[in-house]
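Troubleshooting log. The previous structure file for this entry was overwritten by mistake, so regenerating from the original sequence record. Sequence copied from the archived sheet and checked twice against the printout by T.R.
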Amino acid sequence: MAAREALRTFARSWLPGRTNVDARERLRAVTGAGLGLLITSLIVQLAGGGADGHWLIAPLGASAVLVFALPASPLAQPWPVVAGNMFSALVGVACARWMPEGLWVGPAATALAIALMFGLRCLHPPGGAVALLVALNHTTHFPFAIQPVLFDSVLLVLAGVLYNTLTGRRYPHVQLAPRAPAADARFSSADVDAVLARYNQVLDISRDDLETLIRETEVESYRRRLGTVQCADVMTRDPVVAEFGTPLQEAWALMQARRIKALPVTDRTRRVVGIVTQADFFRHIDLEHHEGLGGRLRDFIRATRTVMSSKPEVVGQIMTRQVRVASEDRPLVELVPLFSEGGHHHIPIIDAERRLAGMITQSDFVRALYRAVGPEDAPAASAPGR
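Regenerated output below.
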């Protein structure tokens, strides 16, 4: 049984994997390859090529597959196409011209062409075919690398730039500079580089595309696992609130007693009109000098005994009026950008009548995320202070 299963696994390894593109993308690639080669052929003929199209080199068909069907591939970019084909032709001519005739000329030309393409950062699989074709045909004049090889390659690349751009594909597919990861990112660009260094093989995908795919896969995983979780499932119900006229000293004492960092501010109908955080308190005192900070805070929140006051006295005077809220039935995953990129730490949750129903903090969100994507047998994390 073990031998049969091993044989079955070996047989399956020879089968091709599925191509995850739809019929529209396939039609786009097929049409582009045909048009690209047709345009190249027409221009070659107008430039003096033979009517039978013999100035087109056969490996250009393989280049067309890459340029039009895999425009994001590092092997399909303009420099690999043009330089890879041209330098491979030069290697093939040199081998045909200076090596003794024999079976080794073609293999040697191909191997040397690959080595040169590696060195010049223009690895292009059809380049190996160009070197082999030139060596097998015993082409010994170096101008062949210019016309037709270089001429054909440049025309094909220009057709690729035009067609891919018009059909919504980025070409040339320039590798972007690594983005700075979000503070809560599970991996960094350096982690990707370290794994690629250990893998130590040529990938038919650019580094930035690979990192983007990993990040989007991670987001998709979160979306799948958190997709059924709503804000109502995570929020703290009936949170402590303040009103517009709540004295500062009372609000501060309430935050300290409950060990919370923010209070939603509501009107008499319990609709959210603002939010007051510890940062709102500290914004009104001098933070440049640490000495006497506690005393300055006490002086700020202490109620003024006189009728007139030059400092804020109630929560409504220091609260943040622009508040980002979310509904109870909103999927929790939609709050990811607010916490990770928007700089929010507390989000009031409202019911169908737009009254305050609960509160979600970063701690609530992290705990929910941990339960959704963490190990099933991991112990539950203790609730940190809010």
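Residues 376-386 have pLDDT under 50 and may be disordered. Archived copy saved in two places this time.
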